[in-house]
């Protein structure tokens, strides 16, 4: 029986696991398998600077070429797996090869949710998740072209911000009553709606797409209220976790691969980390439900915990999540996880384009959303990590420095 | 290609060729130089790519902007010469730049 470790999914989490396992002293065989033709790369720039043409492709790759051989990691790109054979402790690759494992780490991430509406297969429809998507989409960005973005979440808005600056006519169609509804509080949605409008992006809220029309390629996007002319469409309506392979092998799945606080799945030899996992959260130091997070921070931190667990030194995963989004010259930084019954406390003035919304619950912070307000973000994040009770009323007073809340 | 020297807290030196247009942070993380974490990948969102820049080089690097200034406030052991290395873009004028890493980024 081998003690080799096999990692399926060569993205941010998979790569971190390779680094962390070697750093933790793992000396056995290591294989990293990915279905894309690229070595592990960072995704955040894809909808921002890389799309805008301001970021050379080689800067996306997370490690230099020699990294994998130096770390004795067999890197298998452009390779899908078809099955996990848990009793035989091996995975089956597309093409028939069987790869045995002592321990298996699933870092399969997520794939874009595809829109199902008539005409969705017309040419000129784009999604954005990987390098190849952007390479196909970037040529679209020509002045005067009409881009309709379906989905007012992070991807949709980041792309809209780049496209409007490239001289396109941009319309964002959001089915909900506000943008980024899943991810930010109402004041933030309002702020971003205003900022996009000021830059010339047309945002239509409460607009679901009924269908797409065109002769050979997309020409119109149909909503109940209105029809929009389009040369191209970018769909950003979320992602779905790549958990099917785990489910088919009998592992517990539910909005992702279910793992415990040590990143272990329902099989003691199989672990999972990153966008594909449903894991417990620990706000205020108690078990507070489960989440699936889609972020660089979670991928990296969970992968580190998975490496520790695979080395029989499990650590409980309790990192406070954090996240950022760049749109125009606005840096949105978020830490923590908001709860539905949070009180919102505003610090600063959105009209100054520099402010923060703190989420307060039982006298402590659960989350902070900061726009061009790094001290609010950094102190907020520390306060959430510490679970410190604070006088939230004082947060509104900008003459009180954020640092003082840490004392 | 510009050479950047990274000196770890214990004195160990690494001299790396870093392409023009990359950041000092990328030169480190992509070449396995320990001591720079760069959790956010260079988005000026985490303050864990903190380095000390020698006073001799201060004039050659564009001054800190507001966001970096704010984030640096919270870097561990920040000093007057502190910079976030993800905000220093490498060009030929920086050939020979020396940066030192703090004791820890967290």
Q: What does this molecule look like?
A:
The complex is a heterodimer of chains A (407) and B (106). Chain A has 9 helices and 26 strands. By secondary structure, chain A is α/β, with parallel strands linked by helices. Chain A has 3 domains: 5-111 and 239-310, FAD/NAD(P)-binding domain, CATH 3.50.50; 114-235, FAD/NAD(P)-binding domain (3-Layer(bba) Sandwich), CATH 3.50.50.60; 329-406, FAD/NAD-linked reductase, C-terminal dimerisation domain (Enolase-like, domain 1). In chain A, helix 1 (12-23) packs parallel to helix 8. The longest helix of chain A is centred in the C-terminal third of the chain and has 15 residues, at 296-310. Chain B is α+β, with helices and mostly antiparallel strands. Chain B has helices at residues 24-29, 66-72, and strands at residues 3-7, 13-17, 50-53, 82-84, 98-100. In chain B, strand 1 (3-7) and strand 2 form a beta hairpin. The A-B interface holds A 42, 44-45, 56, 59, 61-64, 67, 70, 296-297, 300, 322, 324, 326, 331, 333, 372-375, 377-379, 382, 403 and B 21-22, 26, 30-32, 39-41, 43-47, 66-67, 70-71, 73-74.
